[in-house]
């Protein structure tokens, strides 16, 4: 009888506990069901990007000549002009064998595809080299200085040394992922302690140590050292590693003298089959190879565009009004590079600018460039009529003035030259972009989070509940806006992915947009 009473009491307690638990759980459900997350239309958030504004300058001239180059493999079918003949812009000059032109086009298109494949292979090899851990020759053990230094922790905003107490300057925006690592501003003599690397390895975070001019984030970036905490071989806690040289400092190394370093090789934290010096050389060579292949591809694509025009009707037209000069014999073509003919311009004004090799695939004949006179302020438009096949150092850089790239001359015809005179300088301006630009979506990068190397947003589904939507991202513009290449449309609605309501399943309400 006693056992029955005990069992009955236990049963009652269990039922009460279950009811209580159900009440608490139900309370949480009711509370969460009342929570809402505000969502914004992607169309409203989209910061459309149509390309970069780039500038050039050039000299207005009225004596521009068009050169027509034909090789013996092109197969001239008919020549429509004679030496000394006057021609108008758009007149037929000669006809090529379309069969030959089509075969040349097909060959050039195959060359473009081959170059693309070579670039892909070269990029994969570069990625492999960058992920290779350098090998370090064993060295005599040294007794390093203690991690607690005698110098001040910071010089202005930059760290003289990095301990785990150091604060990244982007702590409010970063999450320590490969796509969004923590960044530390360092002096040129700064070093990182082994204890920091040890804790970095435990946390598995990505960090970047940066050295900027004038020890300011706004200064020019001089060097950076990116470290993946999940991949490093953890050094001794009391060791020190130079940010500038990525090498271990020995007991004889002064904080302000990073020239005296352990000669066992850079980045000794990571270990592999090549020294850091060897890897740096291989990486540099591979990057140059990719640059050269990319330039070859852009030049081949330019040739493809020209061959397409030839293979359609086989006709080459005059792009200036002028006189035919130096016409060659079509049955005895020169082999020394001499043009087949020239058209010496006699009417209108022309201007020559320069296109960066990086923009060869974005600027085409027929595009319009804005012209503005330095002297009178006269403004007008010019049409690009020709892009030269070879780079030149005699043209104004079009696209930023980067000394590491080549520039190709382009010629533009000014149809309405009122207010301009021969020999005056003008500014040239146009917007260039990828064909797909403008179709992409650009939103504030704070709306995009990452998970296991994948980017995602929180989107409202058809039931007005938040769901995780993975997206493919692209370039970052203006420093805070990221391109969404796929996974999102302007019809979608997304929530800011931080805060207590930034969870899947939360009911959404449309925002009036005021707080954004």
Describe this structure in words.
Residues 105-132, 283-310 form a coiled coil. This is YknX-like beta-barrel domain-containing protein. Residues 350-426 form the YknX-like beta-barrel domain. One of its GO terms (cellular component) is cell envelope. It is found in: Cell envelope. This protein is of the alpha+beta class and 516 residues long. It folds into 3 domains: 36-50 and 437-510, conserved putative lor/sdh protein from methanococcus maripaludis s2 fold (Beta Barrel), CATH 2.40.420.20; 52-97 and 314-432, no CATH class; 154-272, no CATH class. It has 5 helices and 28 strands. The chain has helices at 2-34, 42-45, 98-130, 194-203, 276-313; strands at 36-41, 52-61, 65-68, 76-79, 86-87, 92-96, 154-155, 158-162, 182-193, 206-212, 221-228, 240-242, 248-249, 315-317, 322-325, 341-345, 349-356, 368-373, 379-387, 407-414, 425-432, 441-444, 449-451, 454-460, 466-477, 481-486, 493-495, 507-510. Strands 1, 22, 23, 24, 25, 26, 27 and 28 form an 8-stranded mixed β-sheet that branches. Strands 7, 8, 9, 10, 11, 12 and 13 form a 7-stranded mixed β-sheet that branches. α3 packs antiparallel against α5. The model is unreliable at 1-32, 139-148 and 253-272 (pLDDT under 50).
Descriptive terms for the model:
conserved putative lor/sdh protein from methanococcus maripaludis s2 fold; alpha+beta; YknX-like beta-barrel domain-containing protein; Beta-barrel_YknX; 516 residues; 23% helix; coiled coil; UPF0194_transport; 3 domains; seven-stranded mixed beta sheet; eight-stranded mixed beta sheet; disordered N terminus
